[in-house]
Structure formats: structure tokens, C-alpha cells
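[User]
If only I could read C-alpha cells as easily as an amino acid sequence. I have put the entry right below:
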Amino acid sequence: MQKILVARPIFPDVIERLKQYFDVDWNQGDVLPADEFTRRLADRDGALTAGDPVGAAVLAAAPRLRVVSNMAVGYNNFDMAAFNAANVLGTNTPDVLNESTADFGWALMMAAARRIAESEHWLRAGKWEKWAYDAFLGGDLYGSTLGVIGMGRIGQALARRAKGFNMQVIYHNRSRVAPEIEAELNAEYVSKQDLLRRADHVVLVLPYTQENHHTIGAAELALMKPSATLTNIARGGIVDDAALVEALRSKQIAAAGLDVFEGEPKLNPDLLTVPNVVLTPHIASATEATRRAMANLAADNLIAALGEGPRAGRPPNPINPEVIGRARS
């Protein structure tokens, strides 16, 4: 029987599915330290991860490893050059979280614009003594301009929601989307600089790559309106968190909503000192239905990639399909 490592706690019924096909080593505790993760992979044929870094050294220490299934859409934790060099397949879990993540992005954007977290903290501190016309004045979403950076599946789901708020949608993407998609979303393609200058609410939904590192830094924040908000539901590192703190503190922009951070689960401690930011712990996809769908899709990828189950040899979501069928290097 082939052996796999499940590196993070996941739903027990998904583990039972995997046990039908594999000898399963299941980590039910905290995130594995890098050395223990590498040690436990050493004799495994496959692994199911959720953000655990996998690079050349890890792959070299696991000569039997043929597939690593990431329970996430993003896979910046994978060194794909090393995967390709070793003929190891990587897989991910796109699509099943589009709507839940877009819902959360919308909620985070609204919370930032309407100062919900800031006003709740003030209320809980016992400071509410009277109504005031100027208490916690925020920004409107209805009739405003939404700027989406990264018009993939989730970005498009966000843009669809903008119709109900009568928002103008502008977007920037690595490449322009098809004209029929633009027409469906009533979305205008613009440069990043133009988007930052025009948008009332900027939402980041692009993958993390070295090229996208600090897509939003001090120079970009300086282009935004003082009344604008920034929401990041993409990946940590896309925003220069230190520069964002300064922009929030100086009221260069009005507010921000962050679900992801540089170096998470650690975060820049200065973010905790500015009131006009809403902070959540990477939970944009965290509905039970969506997380179950992600776990089961990650399992489907692993089962199929290791030649088991009804889709044997045809995993649903290969990242580097060109290595399928090649001998492990």
C-alpha cells in the first residue's frame, strides 16, 4: 500500500476516504516544524499540505514522493522549478472557494469602509454615551468605484457583486480578460496607476509571485484617494505592510481590510496600533461547505495522481501537468 502524509489537521471523514487507498500518517497537532515535516515525508509517496513550504531540499529528502496536493488555490509555498526538476506533481484546489472568498472580500471591504471593527471596539470599551452626527463617518459603497487588481475567478465573482451596489468596476490584470467577460461585468480595463487614482475601494485578488511582491507599496498608496480603502484577500507579501501602516496612520488612505499578511501567522505588530484597519486570520474561504470541498478536492487530486480511484492518472487540478507519467528524478 502506498504511503502518504497529511501534514495538517483536516476533516476526519476525508482521512477515512484516504485510508481506503493509502497508509496515512496524519498530523493532528500544530504545524510541523520544517525538520519534522521533511523527516515524515522521507518514505512517503504523496502528501496533502495546506501552505507547508516544499522546496528542493524537501524533495531531495523524499525520493519516493510523486505528488504534493495543496489544500489551497495559491501555491507560492511550492518551489515549482524544483518540482519540475524532480518530476514531482503539484496540485491545488481552485474554483470551489470562489464565491465564499468573494463574499468575505465584500464583507471585509464593507467593514473597512463603514468602520465596523473600529466602532465596535469603541463601543465595547464603554465609550458610547450619546449619538453624534459625526461619529464614525465612513465611505459609501453604493454608487462608488470598485477597483479590482487580479481579475481571475474570484475577482470576477467580486465584480458580479458590484452590480447590486450600482458600482463602476475598473480592473487591472496581467492580461485583459475576454470582451464578453468585460461586458458581463460592465468592467473597464485600466492601468494599475489609473486604477489606484480612480478607485474608491481597491481589492487585491492576485496570486503571489516574486513579480507581484509589494505590488502595493508606498508609491502606490500615495496614488490613492484619501477617502479610499484597500482590501487584501490575496496573499501576504503583495502589500508592503509597513508602508500600509504609515499610510493608515497618516490618513493617506481612509482604511484597510486585511485577511493575509507578510510572514503570517506572524504579522507586523504596528498593524495592531492603527484603528482604521480590519484584521482577520486568513479565513476568506472559511465556511464549512467550502473548506470541506477544498479538503475533498485535495484528496481527489492525491488519490488520482497516485493512480487510485475512478480518476486514476487524471488528477482534477494539476499545476504542472507536464510531469505526469514521468519517472521521479
